[in-house]
Structure formats: structure tokens, C-alpha cells
Write a structure and sequence with these properties.
mainly alpha; 34% helix; binds zinc ion; elongated
Length: 190
């Protein structure tokens, strides 16, 4: 990412300043001790750096974009934590889905459309999990179709030892389903 020197919003001069200048007493809590930030001297548009470096995460953001980046972070962080993914794995998944090199997959540097894309990717993945849990659940219902919705026979009552689901989705990330009801294949599907 190119070092920003002139603000894209107001044409003001951008300087590298210590994060403490912006975040004051919250700097340490935010994990930004000794970190620097590119800041427009005129309108306060800004962007952080890759940890421990002066390489900007992306282009400077005005308040609207900063709020969007923050919202995106909240959605994404909740998404990977709930899925039991590690942070590293989550960013690899994101880079793959967005077709970006991993080094560029940082929400702190994303533009508005990329932020929205992240939010939608998380929603799609969560909906797919919910759909899976639903099929999985039906599988144990008396009188329920063994194949579940769409005749998918992965969930047919079978050998109790047989894994019902590989735990990997198409994108390869591990999903946790412990919070959903697990099928009990020992009970007969009447
Ligand atoms: Zn500016």
C-alpha cells in the first residue's frame, strides 16, 4: 500500500503521528502502544499501520468510513469467534473469499464496498450453518424425511459411528456445531 501523503478528502497534508496523539489514555488498552497512524492535518482522516511497522493498512478514512470499518470488525470478529476459528485462520478465510493476498486482508484498510462485502460474507456463512443445523435436526425427528430438505442423504439415519458431517465446509474452514442439537441415530425414524 502506497504511503498516503495528500488527503483524498480535503487535499490536506498527511503526517505519521504516534497513535497516542489520537487515542490518548486508551492507546494501551487498544493495543496501539508504540504504533503510528497516518493522520490528515486538516480534516483528521486517518489510517493505522501494520503492527510494528509504518506500512499503512490502506488509504485514510473519514469518519463515515471509520464507522463502517468499525462495524465490519465487530461483525467479523463475532463471526470467527462464534465459529471457533483462530484469528489467523479467519483472515486466511477472508482473503480467500475476497480474492486478496493475505497481506492486504485487513479491515482497517478496507474501502466502503469491501467492508460491506465482509459483512455479507459473514451473513452468508452464518445462514448456511443455520440451514445445515435445521436439516441436521430434522434428521432425528420421528416421521421426518431421512434426506432432509432437498433430499440430501448425508443425514440419513445410519451407523451411529458414521460421522454425520465432516466438519468442513466448501471453503475448508472448520465449523462447530456443538451448539446445535445433534442427531441421535439410535432412535428409529418411525
Ligand atoms: Zn483531510
Amino acid at each position: 500500500m502506497k504511503i498516503p501523503t495528500i488527503c483524498r478528502y480535503c487535499g490536506g497534508v498527511i503526517r505519521l503521528v504516534p497513535a497516542r496523539k489520537i487515542y490518548g489514555a486508551s492507546t494501551d488498552r487498544l493495543g496501539l502502544t508504540n504504533e503510528n497512524i497516518y493522520l490528515c492535518q486538516n480534516c483528521n482522516a486517518r489510517v493505522g499501520c501494520h503492527k510494528g511497522t509504518n506500512r499503512p493498512l490502506g488509504n485514510v478514512a473519514n469518519e463515515v468510513l471509520r464507522l463502517k470499518r468499525r462495524e465490519t470488525h465487530q461483525v467479523f470478529d463475532a463471526f470467527w469467534r462464534e465459529n471457533g476459528m483462530t484469528r489467523t485462520r479467519a483472515y486466511k478465510w477472508l482473503a480467500g473469499r475476497m480474492d486478496l493476498p493475505e497481506k492486504n486482508a485487513h479491515i482497517g484498510g478496507f474501502e466502503m464496498d469491501q467492508c460491506q462485502q465482509v459483512i455479507e460474507l459473514c451473513e452468508i456463512e452464518l445462514n448456511r450453518e443455520a440451514a445445515y443445523a435445521c436439516r441436521n435436526y430434522r434428521c432425528q425427528r420421528p416421521g421426518g424425511r431421512a434426506g432432509g430438505v432437498g433430499g440430501d442423504d448425508r443425514h440419513r439415519p445410519a451407523d451411529p459411528e458414521e460421522p454425520v458431517y465432516s466438519g468442513r465446509s466448501r471453503s475448508g474452514q472448520e465449523l462447530r456445531h456443538q451448539r446445535f442439537p445433534q442427531p441421535d441415530h439410535r432412535s428409529p425414524a418411525v
